[in-house]
Known about the structure:
The protein is α/β, with parallel strands linked by helices and 234 residues long. The protein is built from eleven helices and eight strands.
Amino acid sequence: MSAKDVIIALDFPTREETLSFLDQFPAGEKPFVKIGMELFYAEGPQVVRDIKARGHKIFLDLKLHDIPNTVKRAMAVLSRLDVDMVNLHAAGTSEMMRAALEGLTRPDGTRPLLIAVTQLTSTDAAALKNELLIDTPMAETVLSYAKNAAASGLDGVVCSPLEAALVKERCGADFLTVTPGIRFADSAAGDQKRIMTPEKAGKSGCDYIVVGRPITQAEDPVAAYRRAVKDFWG
Ligand SMILES: O=C(O)c1cc(=O)[nH]c(=O)n1[C@@H]1O[C@H](COP(=O)(O)O)[C@@H](O)[C@H]1O
């Protein structure tokens, strides 16, 4: 899969709202999309199949985090869905990540990309230190999780765009950085703490930017998507 793309987070509560959002795009324009917990829990795997059948690449964002055996078996189930990317929490440890990779690999040897969430983009330095009790600075923490993910055979990490360059430098150019926390200069940050514009993200080593509300809540979502693509490519 060629890296560098804009992924739209389809954070909608129903299939109807999701499809009417996608229907705003012209027939030939098929953005890479992310299906997360809200839509998946509401509609189940069929909505994944339906959106795939419409020609979209899909990042299935369920952020698995459990004991290795449970994650392995859940990944084996997810591998039957024809998605392009899935994720888990690196905090589940290297043993869990290796088990996930095993479970995700289909009998024919193929599998979706497997990406590890490092530290959520809604976590700031104070929460890292005071609530998670991690004394290591954010960038070093993210890098350490990224190294564990790389050593476990994963394809990349979810991190904020602020850490993407460091991860690429230390884990290799082919190790993917998938970065939410994307905001236009005139967007509300909301609950996101570690943020960057699409333009700066494009210059900071991000392979994929994940953009939700700045596109889905825009007055003209198609124009907002195209603006993100244009700014990201620079
Ligand atoms: O794994 C993710 O996709 C993810 C990880 C992370 O650290 N931060 C983060 O925001 N996300 C997801 O990325 C999307 C960002 O949405 P907006 O904040 O609306 O742009 C949401 O669907 C989040 O669930």
